[in-house]
Amino acid sequence: MERRRSISFREVFLIVVLLVGCPRRLSALSVTVNDLECVYEFVVYEGDTISGNFVVVDHDIFWNSDHPGIDLIVTSPAGNTVHSLKGTSGDKFEFKAPRAGMYKFCFHNPNRTPETVSFYIHVGHIPNEHDIAKDEHLDPVNVKIALLREALESVTAEQRYLKAREVRHRHTNESTRRRLTYYTITEYVVLALASGLQVVYIRRLFNKSVGYNRV
Fold first, then answer.
1. For 36-77, how does the pLDDT look when each residue is reduced to its tens digit (9 = 90+)?
2. Which of 43, 79, 203, 211 could link 97 by a cystine bridge, Cβ 3.0 to 4.6 Å?
3. Are 118 and 30 a contacting pair, CB within 8 Å?
4. How far apart are CA 9 and CA 5, in angstroms?
5. Residues β-bridged to residue 53
6. 56-69 burial string, b = 16+ CB within 10 Å, else e?
7. For 111-126, how does the pLDDT look when each residue is reduced to its tens digit (9 = 90+)?
8. Which of 148, 121, 156 lies closest to 12 in space, CA to CA?
9. Angle at the Cα of 20 (from 14 to 148), degrees rounded to 5?
10. Is there a contact between 148 and 19 (Cβ–Cβ < 8 Å)?
């Protein structure tokens, strides 16, 4: 009967070091979209998983139901559209790269009002059996490390997405609060002016009545 060999502390430490030290390909940025803005990401291997998210962070503009939203179009090195999202304030995306090369991520703003887009992208590579057969230094441990790394990247991407949405909601709430404050102040000013005009009008009526009585 075979005895299962337990993983030593040294091996666990080596895995953690490899996991932290492995180069990660990711991008996190913000772009201001007036009409059309594009960012680029290079994919090294065909079949890699391209994932990410974006959130439109409003400043002083409160979107109504008629707002067209933001479009995202992803183009492959061959010029083909491999992924697209239409009319949204933010979403997640994930797809397999059909080929290696430079991919273009374009944001289109139909409303033509400047909008800031918080954008995150990650290119994940998981070695397969073919890679293991070609590379004698690649073993299943490296594959497990790659899988664990991608799982951690997925958690990181989700945190970034939730943080960006929280910023958007906070800006929306602040914009709503400012609009409500201005509306309330304007309402009070209009009521004060209306009350003043009523007082002036009533006084003039009384002055005219007194003049008629004297005559």
1. 889 899 998 888 989 989 888 865 555 565 667 889 999 999
2. 43
3. yes
4. 13
5. 92, 120
6. bbbeeeebeeebeb
7. 877 888 888 888 887 7
8. 148
9. 85
10. yes
